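Worked example

This section walks through a single chain of length 489. The input is the sequence exactly as stored; nothing has been trimmed or padded.
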Amino acid sequence: MKAVGVLPPTTRIEPEPGLQVLDGRDGTTVLLGGSPYKLLTLRPAAAAVVTQLLNGETIGQAAKLCNVSTAAAERIARRLLDNGMTEPAHQQPNQYSVADVTAVIPVKNEAESIGQLIHELTKSGITHIVVVDDGSTDNTHAAAVAAGADVLRHDRSLGPGPARMSAMSKVNTAVVLFIDADASPPADWSMLIAAFDDPDVAIAAPRIASLAGTNVMARYETTRSSLDLGSRRASVRPRSRVSYVPSAVLLVRVDALMALEGFDPGLRYGEDVDLVWRAVDNNQVVRYEADVVAHHRPRPSLQAFVRQRMSYGSAAAPLDQRHRGLVAPLQASGWSVAVWALALLGGPLGFIAAVGVAFGTASALERKLRAIAQPRRVAWSLALRGHLGVGRQLASATWRAWLPFALLAAVFSRRARCALFLSAAMPIEEWLQKRPRLDPFRFTALRLLDDASYCAGVWKGCLTERSFRALLPHLANWPGKVPTEGAPR
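Given that input, the structure is written out below as tokens.
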């Protein structure tokens, strides 16, 4: 993705956790990091600008200190942002305020809660609120009117995407907030609205945490909500650490939304993922601002939990029809996959072969990192972390996409049964890291049910679309390829 807008000279950036600044050959500096992981080689003049930017200077100040043009410093800052190596530093918004936001709420049968959400939005400073009653059979319409919202009504349910777009005729502000009826807005919008100071940002989303509760489902979702994308900020793009953002709470620039023709009415689920990916394809930036936290109600029952996960999974095949290859259940180096396949399924000789392949990939990666002055330590560290990460991905994909294959293989193969058992034990590692308010047995059972329900939805969607491409992995080239870029001037 290549952004085209110009960052204001007052912009500050900060390094993404894990960014490595290393000495290169011939006086260059090498940056390693980003998502997807990349290597960026800097000439001395550009390295000096990067040093100032990473030390907290604004683009304008860095240009002055390094005796380069502001435009040159801006291009360097933009390159770092686009590669996911840095994030914009927090600042107060300059272009928009909460007064420039209209809230749109698609709703169905939420008469008891819609008034509270409207009150919370008004309290946060949003004065224009449009509720779209999408075929409710209860008193939702009257409750929304009584709370002071501008209300549209559909006689029959059209789905959340069309409901949101039908409200756009009543939106006269520069920014629209889409928020679901079972969500709660963040207390402070400023950091989220500040994302639009970058002229390329079309969409900004907060972190969506599950509301705390005392029952088992609420305690599980507090730790592992399907809407919670983690505590680290990110530039959102396919095949990166944060590849999409949900529409439960979504701030969108109106002109960008209309240029994209809004949400796809043909998608009942996954319409938010489709919108984000079309925005990225259109050279627009999508930001995940994890420091801004909104909340979402957990599913009230186990049945509702399973239905929700199946619904999310059913979007995989329709999304693959629109964005081929981007919904792959596994995106990894083919050689890392070979290491695990040999180790788990190949017996003693297979394990020896897996060790050989692992050593070979590390040696080949060392050659790819020859721009670094001392590449061996970095290469072997990256190779080890890469193989371990792919092991986790394989365990997840086994339950979230390939479970029917895995169960069938386990009937005939003892090694396949062992591999399936190991993949089922992976949630224990997550439990040890997060220490949720739930014992490891119930956490593991719910995690496996979570993934298996999603898998059932994936297969349902594939059968409906008569296409099974959404089950295919995306395997990178030999061996754990690290994309490289030349030195910016």
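What to look for: The mean pLDDT is 91.
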